[in-house]
């Protein structure tokens, strides 16, 4: 049981066994819970409180999180729930099957009952897509492609507040593009040329079979 609880979120489908919490802790919601309340996958916020119970196991007491209260950030509209401050929402735990991977590679499927959030001190390039960071601290160590570099840098609101803490490899953005990407660009150019020919009335029907 302790081994399952102590697994990192990435080894348990982003449904962590243990959530270390404190007031002000930044968290990210990992499930579409209620879109009308801005409780969507990827929404960010800060912990403002929680309700818990106690689980007795092996003669020890373990706190079990029942409901987490989060102050949502950057919502498109004000969220108002009776009895709670503006933009503060409750998230209850929910159960779903989770495939866990142990450090030795062993896999085990369990049914985990947990609040669908993870700690949000940092995020991957994939998770950051579509966001703007007023202060953007970037670690490029595990970024393998120029797509990844572009995603990380383009999250910044300004050059002044962009910080690279390590891992910058110039060859990733200076070493040319891959063959499959060159092919995709060629195909896009061909489609653009065909469209231009059609608009000018010079399109040859036999092109459609190529």
Automatic annotation (TrEMBL):
Xref: InterPro entries: P-loop_NTPase
Protein name: ATP-dependent DNA helicase
The species this protein was found in: Sphaerobolus stellatus (strain SS14)
Lineage, opening ranks: Eukaryota, Fungi, Dikarya, Basidiomycota, Agaricomycotina
